[in-house]
Amino acid sequence: MADPRGFLKSQREVAQRRPVAERVNDWNEVYPGGIGRALLPIITEQAGRCMDCGIPFCHQGCPLGNLIPEWNNLVRTGEWTDAADRLHATNNFPEFTGRLCPAPCETACVVGIGSDAVTIKNVEVSIAERAWLDGNVEPQKPEWFTGKTVAVVGSGPAGLAAAQQLTRAGHTVAVYERDEEPGGLMRFGIPEFKMEKSILDRRLDQMKAEGTVFRTGVSIGHDVLGKDLVARNDAVVIATGSTIARTLPVPGADADGIHQAMTYLPQANRAAVGRPVEGAIDAAGKHVIIIGGGDTGADCLGTAIRQGAASVTSLEIMPQPGVDRPANQPWPMYPVIKRIASAHEEGGETINQASTLEFLKHEDGRVRALKVADVSFETGAPVAVPGTERELPADLVFLAMGFVGPEQEGFLDQIGVSFDERGNVVRSDDWASDVEGVFVAGDAGRGQSLIVWAIAEGRAAAAAVDRYLMGESRLPSVVKPTDRPISLG
């Protein structure tokens, strides 16, 4: 440990975001120069707050098994290249997780028992950005080729992690993506102000240089039949994600102007980088209501504000959580507390404990308002409180209520995989589906989850595929399909 009293001498400090009045007028990251560079002036001291615990619970909080005390210590002593090596040993894409992961490692940090946790996520992204800045992120080409071919369906974090690991193991890997460019929700779901797509593109360039092939604009199940894909490859990895959005079955839900968040955000993200989008949804001058208070709802909020919405109101059915850890979620569990995304600082109103009873329409069929009511949880389930009904004006409504499973029609039905009671693809302890040679990683098998779980599962599934093809594998495998976050017990 570089500084045994570091956590006593220094307070937690994070990078300062750009002023709201400045950043809402562009689509750039909300941190000056990007978060990694914005953090560099303070990060050495912050890394020194790490206690190098005898039992580092941050390891249990992180599905990737990141060697957090090791790279904290290396940053504290200025050994940035070695820190990057230790970070990349467990995480293919730390610049993604350092921006987008909610950092369950920090809620498990031992310093957090009696003080503010170490800024683990900030140190992580700083190491990654410094490595790119110094030119230390280079292609890792395989030493030899196995002659085996693997198809990865889906180019989100799970698919990319699996593909990079398998390519480095010497297999010939093709990633199939139905959109025009790879990246999945990282490209088309995550707004520029959270992660500029240049961050994604430079990692994809590394993967291409290593030998991974990307076949974009190809819909497996339509352009290529699922059974044909399985037949022509030695192994297939399903990494299609959980993409069936949850709906809100109340009267008037068919009104014009009601859209799923993942219809709105991909259009806005394409437009933000200068691509023409025919018939794009535009919030300019409109009263916008977002149903759902999670990260996707916050992304819609920040996007609508940048488009010039007249007002933005977010509805959340659950009570507003407190700022302190609840007594029933003690350390090191991941607690339900109030978290402020950058978009929440930029405007809009949030109404908690509100339920939508009906969408009200104009005569032409467009939405004009939501009929909502307060809800009570006295009986456990949310129940509308009589007498609290009211109307909220709305020109646009975005549904950001999460996802219920992968798309079964087409590819998955064609190859004949089985599904569990939640609609996810069934998989064994070695990540295999019940179809020979077909493996499952990420949200398609796990259900909607975090980017850090997707990367961890992609890496572990790659090791399982490598063993299936070669009889053994040197690829690391940290998580199992049955693993769950520490907060769930």
Please provide a brief summary of the model:
The chain is an alpha/beta fold and 489 residues long. Helix 15 (295-307) links the parallel strand 6 and strand 7. It has helices at 6-9, 20-23, 35-47, 58-61, 68-76, 80-88, 94-100, 104-107, 120-133, 157-168, 185-188, 197-210, 226-232, 261-272, 295-307, 411-415, 443-446, 451-470, and strands spanning 149-153, 172-177, 213-216, 235-238, 258-260, 287-291, 311-316, 349-352, 354-361, 367-376, 383-384, 390-393, 396-399, 438-440.
How much is the average pLDDT?
94
Distance between the termini: 30 Å
**How many distinct helices?**
18
Low-confidence stretches: none
CATH class of the largest domain: Alpha Beta
* The CATH architecture of the largest domain: 3-Layer(bba) Sandwich
> How many individual domains?
3
Query: In what order do the strands lie side by side in the largest sheet?
Result: 3-2-1-4-14
Q: Sketch the major β-sheet.
A: 5 strands, parallel
What is the CATH topology of the largest domain? FAD/NAD(P)-binding domain
Write down how many β-strands occur, each being a DSSP E stretch of 2 or more residues.
Answer: 14
Helix content: 25-40%
**Based on CA inertia axes, which overall geometry fits?**
globular
CATH superfamily of the largest domain: FAD/NAD(P)-binding domain
What is the structural class?
alpha/beta
Rg is 23 Å
Strand content: 5-15%
